[in-house]
Design a protein that fits this description.
The protein is mainly alpha-helical. α1 packs antiparallel against α2, α4 packs parallel to α8 and α6 packs antiparallel against α7. The longest helix has 25 residues.
């Protein structure tokens, strides 16, 4: 019964990621309800959603690019190193401390998602990041991505577009960079006893199926409604985790 629920949740998360992002907000609480502690749920969710990230990145590969100012190869290297650093930091974080920290991470990620979904305009050009600032920002995002990961897509979109990248190219590029930073994290998590491999396999299968369904529904559904639902789930989850931890 538990695996059936996780599989259905993963399909939902895959659809959510393909349409509006925020699949972590679906799989993370599902794994908590399945009996995993917060750190194990975060690690298992990261491993489980990774195959779907690979397929999403591959689908948009034709739009991946850098700019005259920032090199795509440099962004990949930075994302790889930052993802390893964040994952290592998570593995070194005591489980009890992570449980106390995770409500703030969830609420932060929810705030970032809400800002990127409803308040930030893709054409905004108030910020013009230099090459160095772009690379530093990407490294910090990669560290955060390896550690927790919620909201990294929105953060990367903000940085890449502020560095001069066209929005469509920024969207495809951030999908590849997200896959890269999570690949490095998954490589470390594979040796962790916190990974529940059976749960991860069930979630991975469901998320891949959901991703394909989401691609079909992309032009047939109101994405703003889904984004609002993610914000609602993230807010309730953050509050619930805060009450649980404190």
């Amino acid at each position: 019964m538990v695996f059936t629920i996780l599989f259905l949740v993963a399909i939902w998360a895959g659809i959510q990621n393909a349409l509006a992002g925020g699949g972590t907000f679906i799989t993370f609480p599902a794994l908590l309800m399945a009996g995993l502690d917060a750190r194990a749920a975060n690690i298992t969710s990261c491993v489980a959603l990774f195959p779907g990230q690979i397929t999403t990145a591959y689908a948009g590969r034709s739009h991946v690019s850098g700019t005259q100012q920032i090199s795509f190869k440099a962004l990949v290297a930075i994302s790889l190193v930052g993802g390893i650093a964040g994952a290592a930091l998570l593995l070194l974080t005591p489980g009890k401390f992570f449980e106390m920290l995770v409500p703030f991470l969830v609420l932060f990620a929810t705030g970032v998602f809400a800002w990127g979904s409803f308040m930030r305009k893709p054409t905004d050009a108030h910020l013009h990041l230099s090459r160095r600032a772009s690379y530093v920002a990407q490294f910090l995002i990669a560290v955060y991505g390896g550690y927790f990961g919620g909201g990294i897509g929105i953060l990367m979109l903000a940085v890449l577009t502020a560095a001069g990248m066209a929005f469509r190219h920024a969207g495809a590029t951030k999908n590849v960079l997200a896959a890269v930073m999570n690949a490095s994290a998954v490589a470390l998590f594979a040796f962790s006893r916190d990974v529940n491999w059976l749960d991860a396999a069930v979630l991975a299968a469901g998320s891949i199926i959901g991703g394909q369904i989401g691609a079909y529904l992309l032009l047939r559904i109101n994405i703003d409604v889904l984004r609002a639902f993610v914000v609602l789930i993230g807010t309730l989850l953050g509050i619930g985790l805060f009450v649980r931890a404190y």
